Amino acid sequence: MTTAASTHTATTGSGGHGPVVRAPNLYILHNNVIQGGQFSLSIVYSLSGLDGKPHFEYHDGSQLLSFSGDQIQTTVSPLGNLVTVTIRMTVDAGSTTFTLVVPPVGLLGQSLNINTFGVTTTRRGGILPNIGQHDLYTVTELAGTAELVVF
Fold first, then answer.
1. Distance (Å, rounded) from C-alpha 133 to C-alpha 144?
2. Does any domain span residue 8?
3. To the nearest whole percent, how much of the chain has pLDDT over 90?
4. 4 falls within a domain
5. Using 50, 70 and 90 to split pLDDT, how confident is the model at 16?
6. 37 within 8 A of 66, measured Cβ to Cβ
7. Do strands 111-123 and 135-147 pair parallel, antiparallel, or not at all (unpaired)?
8. Number of domains the chain is built from
């Protein structure tokens, strides 16, 4: 299920003389709901940090969680890359994950405004058998920037 994040190579226009299009390596996103003077959800996702590993920061107003390396699962899909982190895990009550949909983006400059979404999945669990739907989904629209940053 986990695969490497797709990378895009630089391309040029016709005859190799056009502008260079590059893929971003940093995404700074938030929803449009403000609570207590802050966005109720903000995400910072970097494909590679100084340590060479991906980094993902999740801030939902009540918690700030940081993930790196193997704590981040990336799956290539027709929607774009699906970047998933576990934001809550309990032994007897299931788990909650957040999946960021990273759309394909080509940059001519250093940054570009983008719109995407994230999905929070709450998986029911427990010591008793689950009857009915096991997963509940909440979709959150996100906006922000895709950037090309040199680390």
1. 33
2. no
3. 62
4. no
5. low
6. no
7. antiparallel
8. 1
